[in-house]
Amino acid sequence: MYMIGYFLMAVAKVLDLALSFYMWVVVARAILSWVNPDPYNAIVRFIHSVTEPVLVQIRSRIPSSFGGIDFSPIIVFLGVIFLQTFVVNALKRISFSMMM
Fold this sequence. Notes:
This protein has helices at about 1-30, 40-60, 70-100, and strands at about 65, 70. With about 100 residues, it is mainly alpha-helical. The protein has one domain (about 1-100).
């Protein structure tokens, strides 16, 4: 049981880091929307290609643009915080109970 507990702890840590990284990519995307970046820049294309599939899904389901302001990055940001709080902490709690 210890091995499964340590495995779940590792999964929780990797998921937490991946969600944190994605949250910062969404923040970078929101900041880039305020300026006129070079669309051929590799970093700008990476940020756009990583965030656009999620943002398009939110924009198609929820009218998240009011007065010319796009609120879909905020919804993604809140979703990432929810996943970090609920899923990651649940995995950590399960792994602790398996290690006891």
